[in-house]
Amino acid sequence: MPRFKFFVTHWETALGSRVDITFSKAEIRDLCCCRSRLIKQFGTDLGKKICSRLSLLAAVSNLSDIPSAPPISLTAVDGVDMYSVALGVELRLLFKVVVPHRASAKPNPVVQQIEIIGPEPVPAAKGRRT
Asked: Which residue in 18, 53, 75, 83 has its CB near the most CB atoms, within 10 A?
């Protein structure tokens, strides 16, 4: 069975702009850039879902292009320019948008670089029993 490598750096969007995707750690990069590793670690469904979310993040020109409704559910996370997209009920893909200082004052600035922090568990909602 051939190995499918999923490389997401320097992805060309439909408008021709480039979205650079970087990773916070080499381990996260090695995991996210190889579909077979994702499937081995997270299972078929979740591995494919992570691949599709990375493709989505690579293709957007600004955050308003990402749906905030399920199943994708773009959510702002505590911290400066930190966001997540849903990977299911219990897991999310955390990322940081790197915005040039001069563009940070604009609403919905063009996304030029995204740093993937990695998959992480969704924190329990206040008042919800686990």
From this structure: 53
